[in-house]
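User: Design a sequence. Structure:
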């Protein structure tokens, strides 16, 4: 299986990156999305893998933030918008991490 992870302020514009590491005889590290490109991101800081294979990201940047999905083909889509204050946004990110970590919510590598 692969491991997905993010860099909240990575990339050329400092707006975040999404990576996939696939271990094997020769490990492969891929940048799946980067802020400031056609796959717009604004400082993602939480990531999960949905049971159907999409990467789900919660942003924690400036202004309105989104819960976004990233397909296997690299298409970014909006799931929900969060326009609350920084404190409320942080609480929402923490809560979403707890909820999505429940058994059966995350697709585990085989």
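Assistant: Done.
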């Amino acid at each position: 299986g692969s491991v997905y992870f993010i860099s909240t302020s990575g990339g050329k514009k400092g707006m975040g990156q999404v990576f996939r590491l696939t271990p094997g005889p020769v490990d492969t590290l891929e940048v799946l999305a980067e802020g400031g490109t056609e796959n717009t991101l604004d400082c993602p800081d939480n990531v999960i893998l949905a049971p159907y294979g999409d990467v789900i990201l919660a942003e924690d940047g400036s202004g309105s933030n989104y819960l976004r999905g990233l397909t296997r083909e690299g298409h970014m889509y909006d799931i929900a918008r969060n326009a609350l204050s920084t404190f409320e946004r942080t609480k929402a990110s923490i809560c979403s991490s707890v909820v999505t970590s429940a058994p059966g919510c995350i697709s585990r590598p085989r």
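Strands lie at 3-7, 17-22, 28-34, 44-49, 55-59, 65-70, 76-82. Residues 94-110 have pLDDT under 50 and may be disordered.
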